[in-house]
Structures are given as C-alpha cells and as structure tokens.
Amino acid sequence: MSDKYLETLDELKKIVDDRRKEGYLIATTNGRFAPFHLGQGYMLEAAKLLIENQSEEKSKQGGILIVLLNSDYSVQKLNGLSKHCPPQEERAGTLALLKCVDYITPFDEVTPLKYLEELKPDMHIKGRGKSTLQQRIDEEIKILGNWGGQHEVLSLLEGFSTARILERFQNMK
C-alpha cells in the first residue's frame, strides 16, 4: 500500500500536527469513492486547488488534502456492500494514485465527525451530490465552528455522479 495510506487516526493526527507546525493548511474530504468516476476526480482536484489557494492567501507553506475514506465496515452500515463497491484497500489504492491526494485513512463510523474533531482541519470540503444530506453538513459545520474551520461544498461535474454511474450499471443488465 502507498505511503499516503495511514491505517489509524493516531498515525494521521501525528502527521497533521507536524505539517501544521511546518506551516501547512489542512483540508479534509470524505466518502466511499466507489465506483470512482471523473466527477469525484474533478472534485478532489478542485479541493486541492482550493486549499492551496487558501494557503497562498494566508502566506502559508501549502495545503494538505486528506481523504477520510469510508471503511468496508462503514459502507456496510450505510448501504450494505455491493458488487459496485470494491474493498477499501482497492479504493484507497486508486485514490493514492492521484497527485492531489496527500493522505488517506479509513474510518468505521457512518460520519467523519470524530475524525474532524481530532484533526481540526482548516477546511472540510464535500462534493454536492444526491447523497449529501443537509443534516450531515450542518453537523460538520457545527463541529468545524469550534475552531474556526471552514466548510465548502463544491459542485460536481454535470452528468458524473455515483447515482448516475450505478444507474448505468443497472441498465446494462
């Protein structure tokens, strides 16, 4: 597995603390990223650009983008595992190939709230899809507000959503 992949929150927290001391801004995003598609790649690139631009404006060293990846256990709790959701190691491996992603760590909870609380990112970024629930966004905004973190929701590429991809799979039967 790539050196971008960190198994535990403790490993990630140490790196985040070190990077923050070096002058980097920290951004997180989360999801299952399955099946991975162009819209998600675009969102991750846009998220990295957003944190890099913020870092320039604040005269910081740079921006770090962390993907909090729903673990297999988390995905099963949310949706049940399906043939369209590869194991977390494969999903993490795909994400690790992207230059815009600095670190990836799995989480077992339904939401990344515990990880946000521990990491205290400067920014949490989401793609606006059908599954983006306003209640979850409100919970994230509330937690981020405890330390002045920002919450950003990016538009997805038209025609590229997980729901649309899965619909195409269904129609292929």
Descriptive report:
The chain has a five-stranded parallel sheet with strand order 3-2-1-4-5. It has helices spanning 9-21, 38-57, 72-78, 88-96, 113-119, 134-145, 162-171; strands at 24-31, 62-70, 103-107, 123-128, 150-155. The chain starts with 8 loop residues before the first helix and ends with a helix. With 173 residues, it is α/β, with parallel strands linked by helices. The model has no long low-confidence stretch (mean pLDDT 86). It has one domain (9-171): Rossmann fold, CATH 3.40.50. The protein is built from seven helices and five strands.
Q: Would you identify the regions where 5 or more consecutive residues have pLDDT less than 50?
A: none
Domains (count): 1
Question: For the report, how would you describe the main beta sheet?
Answer: 5 strands, parallel
Quickly give the CATH architecture: 3-Layer(aba) Sandwich
The CATH topology label is Rossmann fold
Give the integer mean of the pLDDT values: 86
CATH class: Alpha Beta
Broad shape: globular
Strand order of the largest sheet: 3-2-1-4-5
Radius of gyration (CA) equals 16 Å
Number of helices: 7
Distance between the termini: 34 Å
Question: Which structural class matches the secondary elements?
Answer: alpha/beta
What is the number of E strands?
5
What is the subunit arrangement here? single chain
CATH superfamily: HUPs
Classify the beta-strand content into a percent band. 15-25%
Order of helices and strands: HEHEHHEHEHEH
Helix content bin: 40-55%
